[in-house]
Structure formats: C-alpha cells, structure tokens
Write a structure and sequence with these properties.
This protein is of the alpha+beta class and 334 residues long. Helices cover 58% and strands 15% of the residues. The protein has a seven-stranded mixed sheet, sandwiched between helices. A hairpin with a 2-residue loop joins strand 1 (2-8) and strand 2. The chain has two domains: 2-270, Beta Polymerase, domain 2 (2-Layer Sandwich); 271-330, Magnesium transport protein CorA, transmembrane region (Methane Monooxygenase Hydroxylase, Chain G, domain 1, Up-down Bundle). Its main location: membrane. Mediates influx of magnesium ions. GO terms for molecular function: cobalt ion transmembrane transporter activity; magnesium ion transmembrane transporter activity; nickel cation transmembrane transporter activity.
Length: 334
C-alpha cells in the first residue's frame, strides 16, 4: 500500500496516488508492505533504489545507514505490541531524497497513525521531508516511552506480589504471604516483560544509530535557519533516546532480579514441602518402632498376657507420636 502525504497551511494532508505517477507536492511517501509496482513507481519518480525486505533485515551498519544517488538511507528496528500483546519487531527504512521522505515498512507500528492524526492539525515545525522525519522519530520515541512505562508498571505489580506481604519468620507462625499467588504465572509474566524490554532496548539502540547518522548528514548541510532548527531537535531526540535506553537497562536489571527472586521462592516452597515430609517421617518413627516391637513373634512377652497390654501399646504409640509433634511445633519447624 502506498500512502501519499503533502503539506498545506502547516498541516499534513493526504493526497491521492494515481496510476500515472505521484503528486508533485508530495512530501512523504509511506510504503506499507508495498507491491513491486508501487516500489517501481516510487523508484522511477525519485530515481532511487528502494531496499528489499531481505535488505532491510541486514544488521551491518554499512547496510542500514548510507547515502546513495543523492538520497539518505536509514534503517531502524521499530517495535509494537501485537494483538496478543506480544512484542513484534521489524526494520523500517527512512529515505530522504530532495527533501521528500520515503518510509518502507512491513508491519504497523502504532507511532505512524498516531503521528498522522496529530499532524493533520497545524504544526509549529517544518512540514518538509526532514521536519516530518524528525517529528515521526519523536512520535516513535514517545511511543517507546509509553511502552517502557507500562512495562515498569507490570514489573512493579509483580514485585508487590512477590515481596509486598509479611514473611514467615523462624519461630513465629504467620499467614502464608503468597497464598493465592501462582509463582509459575509470575515467572511467565516476568519472562514476557523481559523479552519485551530486551527488544525495546535493541530498538532504541538502532534508532539512536539512525539519529546519529542523520545528525552527521545535517552537519554537512549548508547552515540556515531550518538546518539549525533540525539540529536542535535532533540533539533533544538523541538525549531522549539515551535516557530511555538507560531506563530500559534499569528495567532489565530489575526483571533479572525478580526472576531470581521468584525462582528462590519456588525453591523455598519446595524445601518447605520436603521439610513437612521429613518431620512426618520423624513423628511416625517412634510409633512404628513400638508397633514393630510388639509385632515380634517371641514365645514369651509379658505384655501379651496382660489385660491392659493392648491399650497400653496403643497409648504408647500415640504418646510417642504426639510428643515429637509438639516439640517440632514449639521450635517453629511446622
């Protein structure tokens, strides 16, 4: 699909794309999962070679950031949450040719429609190729900040479920603080957010590289008011990316800590179960010993002929079981 946008009265306007060619007043060509015909049309009008989907996936810096045929090519990984709330990362290419912006993408980051909707209203920034590119990257970074904020909230909620209740201390019996909390679900949730934050950090790094390359290109341009404004906005954008990258690193560390903590709690609960079986074995060991003694087939055992022998044996077994139980309970081992 080919979306064509122009600028009028400081606003972004959508223009029709005809089969014959492209409107001359177009300032932004948005190629979304383009067909071969759409790619050929744009290449013919602007005289550039649009990278293929396979070329977009290249990781080398030389393949992602370069200048060719008077155009600037920059590729960055953008991330979005899919319909099932799972992170989806895909490369998006930004091309500047003759102050016209061309974007090539094969997925649908939420920042694009959000920016288009906002840009339909009057803007204070320049509505040309470079100005729209910087505004679009600002929208992408703002969206990344929202994603990281949501991930931080989920991590905080998980932390409260893990640590936000009273603990069971030695010698003091307290209510189980994790009653009703499924630790396996916590691990799955932590793992999902860890994967998302990792991909978001990778996305921010790639965006930062693209912005740094864009600033290097701007430094080579002839100085004027528009270039000065673009440079100032680019520097602010770089600072925002660095801040978000640091925050993503912080969240990654917190997620790793929570994962280790939940695994430790699972180990503690497993040890508690084993302890219960161990204590039960010790409690039932004396009664078993008593029953074994009176179960031996000797010819002469005084208690066998005693009228109270059977109640005595039963009482002895109960007593030998109750005494260790209360001893362990008094020590706080149960």
């Amino acid at each position: 699909m080919l979306n064509v946008y122009g600028a009028a009265n400081g606003c972004l306007t959508e223009l029709p794309a005809t089969a014959e060619g492209l409107p001359p007043e177009a300032v932004w060509l948005d190629l979304v999962e383009p067909t071969a015909g759409e790619e050929s049309k744009v290449e013919a009008v602007l005289g550039i070679d649009i990278p293929t989907r396979e070329e977009l996936a290249e990781i080398e810096a030389s393949s992602r950031l370069y200048q060719e045929d008077g155009a600037v090519f920059m590729t960055a990984n953008l991330i979005r949450r899919g319909d099932n709330d799972e992170p989806e990362s895909s490369p998006v290419t930004f091309i500047i040719k003759d102050n016209t912006l061309i974007t090539v993408r094969y997925h649908h980051p939420q920042a694009f429609p959000a920016y288009v909707k906002r840009a339909m209203r009057p803007q204070t920034t320049a509505m040309n190729g470079w100005g729209i590119l910087i505004s679009l990257l600002e929208a992408v970074v703002d969206r990344a900040a929202d994603h990281l904020e949501r991930a931080g909230q989920i991590v905080d909620e998980t932390s409260k479920k893990t640590f936000g209740a009273k603990r069971t201390l030695a010698g003091v019996h307290k209510q189980n603080p994790r009653k009703g909390v499924n630790l396996q679900e916590l691990i799955e949730r932590i793992g999902e957010e860890g994967d998302f934050v990792s991909k978001m950090r990778e996305s921010l790094v790639s965006i930062g590289r693209a912005v740094a390359f864009m600033q290097a290109v701007e430094d080579q341009a002839r100085e004027n008011k528009q270039v000065k404004e673009n440079k100032a906005r680019t520097k602010i954008l770089q600072r925002d990316i660095v801040s978000l990258t640091d925050h993503a690193t912080f969240l990654s560390g917190k997620i790793s800590f929570l994962l280790d903590a939940v695994l430790g709690l699972i180990s503690i609960e497993q040890n508690g179960i084993i302890k219960i079986f161990s204590v039960a074995a010790v409690v039932f060991l004396p009664p078993t010993l008593v029953a074994s003694i009176y179960g031996m087939n000797f010819a002469f055992m005084p208690e066998l002929q005693w009228q109270l022998g059977y109640p005595f044996a039963i009482g002895l077994m109960i007593l030998s079981a109750v005494l260790p139980y209360y001893y362990f309970k008094g020590k706080g081992w149960l």
